[in-house]
Amino acid sequence: MKLSGIIIQKIKQEGPISFREFMEMALYYPGFGYYTSEKKKIGKQGDYYTSSNLTSVFGEMLGKQIEEMWHILGKKEMMVVEMGAGTGLLSEDVIKYLKTNKNLSRDLNYCIVEKSSYLQKEQQDRLKNENVKWYDSISKLRGMEGCIFSNELPDAFPVHLVEMENELREVFVGYENGFIEILKPASDQLGHYLKELEVTLPYGYRTEINLEAIKWIEQIASSLEKGFVISIDYGYPSNELYQEYRNRGTLMCYYNHTVNESPFEHIGEQDMTSHVNFSALDHWGRKNGLDLCGFTDQAHFLMGMGIDDYLKNLQEKSPKDYFKKMLPIKSLIMDMGGTFKVMIQKKGIEHAELSGLTFQSMK
User: Fold this and answer.
1) Coil, helix or strand for 233?
2) What is the DSSP string of 256-294?
3) SS3 131
4) Got the DSSP string for 158-202?
5) pTM of the prediction?
6) Over its length of 363 residues, how does the chain's per-residue pLDDT go in tens digits?
7) Overall fold of domain 31-155+210-357
8) Quick one: which of 139, 91, 90, 86 has its CA closest to 116?
């Protein structure tokens, strides 16, 4: 039976399910969900590219920022935890850079938190010569000191779809010769989310609420004793996310490098994402002990980490290879640089001047 059939059967037996439950099944149902199947997801044969697919420079710049954090933490034993490492390509680039510092390499404990057994196997194959440990939950690293980072992770958490009528309503999924949407009164928890962020939706406004992201940042905050959290993803703070022109939400689907807004097609075979609310990560991060270091976009982060000097040195040392290597770097800055954001939070640290936040593009 296909995954769509499993979902239809569940609806017929139990009644309409929330869109969040539908999305969770579509992405994570054992063996059939998008992230739990053996389908190629990232790269030319997959459905989308990430920054690390374009060039290893992204991982080098991220590694350079982590190296700076190691200095701030006192140049001692440091745990670096990557949440959701995909194919392991970014991990490989970050580790390669960190190994150039022999003292840091000696003090480094690199861990990956990965729930997908298929992706974990792919990561282990790629990183078989590296000293990496795998975990299925960040809570198993409680009390750690160091840096926790993620690249394009919260955007793939299953979300609640809500729409404002005379009161807040939640989208449920039913089935009548095809999948249909049904609006039901939203739970108090969903209303509380908007109230906490001081967000008032106008009549007819539809958006997503990512309660999983709150649990995620709470787990990170409770696991980190001292250090930093780097979250890289596409999204906005609340004052930009809830603009009128986004009144149908930000839910998008990716299938064979094409983008669509049809979650009820290619079920289990296409990725589904929604833009991250960075104000929510900041708000619930603060409530759980994480202070905001800063927030910027990927282009300004790379500028702060010295990408201009990197390109200048590349041109001087390898003029023949310059244009070949420069083009994907330009894509990191020009094509993806404004879309992707970088938020850095800290815990147990009084002051932290970070190069990646030199040019903060927004508050």
Assistant:
1) strand
2) TTEEES-TTSSTTTSEEE--EEHHHHHHHHHHTTPEEEE
3) coil
4) --EEEEESSSEEEEEEEESSSEEEEEEEPPHHHHHHHHHTT--PP
5) 0.93
6) 899 999 999 999 999 999 999 999 999 999 999 988 876 655 555 545 566 666 789 999 999 999 999 999 999 999 999 999 999 999 999 999 999 999 999 999 999 999 888 889 999 999 999 999 999 999 999 999 999 999 999 999 999 999 999 999 999 999 999 999 999 999 999 999 999 999 999 999 999 999 999 999 999 999 999 999 999 999 999 999 999 999 999 999 999 879 999 999 999 999 999 999 999 999 999 999 999 999 999 999 999 999 988 888 878 877 777 777 777 777 778 777 688 999 999 999 998 999 999 987 554
7) Rossmann fold (3.40.50)
8) 86
Which residue, chain included where needed, has tokens 């003029």?
319
Give the whole-angstrom CA distance, residue 220 versus residue 258: 33
Question: Could you tell me the two tokens for 277?
Answer: 């609310």
End-to-end CA distance of the chain: 49
